[in-house]
Amino acid sequence: MGVFSRLVLFSEVRGTVLKEGKSVAGAELVQKVVWSDDEDKNPTRHTKTDENGTFAFPAIESSAGLLRLIPAQPTIQQTIVIRYEGVEYMAWMHGKGSYAANTELDGRPIKLICELTRQPDYEGKHYGICRVV
Question: Where would I find the DUF6795 domain in this sequence (predicted)?
């Protein structure tokens, strides 16, 4: 990667929200990444599930600037919360240690099934109610 290439803070995410195996339309999803002390660099995105319960977030990227010149291990905290019928569900929590795309799942794209009746738990390196498809 070049000195001024983009840093991927959260790779693209696609998924489906279910409740008791049925699609959930209109659930709100909140995606957040914490990467530095500057709140302007910590974007929060919102989306809602469609009639089929599906949602998508594009990748969150930042310009590299001089960070590419300083050798360091990044620490990026990623979360996705689902809000539905007055309840918040921890869907995804992950600590990303690379600026490359799709490193959350060792090179695979992030495609999730989020079952609201499931108890949050660890699956690999991430935590929440969502499972990788």
Answer: 13-118
pLDDT of residue 75: 87
Element (H, E) at 66: none
Domains present along the chain, CATH in parentheses? 6-132 (2.60.40.10)
Supply φ then ψ for residue 12, to 5 degrees: -55, 140
Q: What is the spatial distance between Cα 58 and Cα 97, in angstroms, rounded to a whole number?
A: 19
| CB of 84 closer than 8 Å to CB of 48 | no
Task: Using the predicted structure, report yes or no on whether residue 1 has a pLDDT greater than 50.
Answer: no
State the DSSP string of 82-123: EEETTEEEEEEEEEE--SSTTTTTTTS-EEEEEETTSPPEEE
Contact criterion met (CB below 8 Å) for 91 and 128: yes
